[in-house]
Amino acid sequence: MLILFKVIIVALLLFMVVNLFRALFSMLRNDPNKPPMSRYLGRRVMISAIVLILLLIAASTGFLPLHPRPY
């Protein structure tokens, strides 16, 4: 189950990078018929917020094992 969680997190991070590059190409082309750059950047911010919330929930519930403090 932990492996599946890690795969989902990595897939979401890859989706963030894809949206970042799509925003770059949208900015460079500046085609009025295509979606605006802000759409892709908004998706990127939304996915990063989802990843952060998932990691916080997994860490707080004990599903994701964290390293102990060194002291």
UniProtKB/TrEMBL annotation:
Keyword annotations from UniProtKB, A to Z: Membrane, Transmembrane, Transmembrane helix
Transmembrane residue ranges: 6-25, 45-66
InterPro entries: DUF2909 (IPR021313)
Protein name per Swiss-Prot or TrEMBL: DUF2909 domain-containing protein
Biological source species: Idiomarina tyrosinivorans
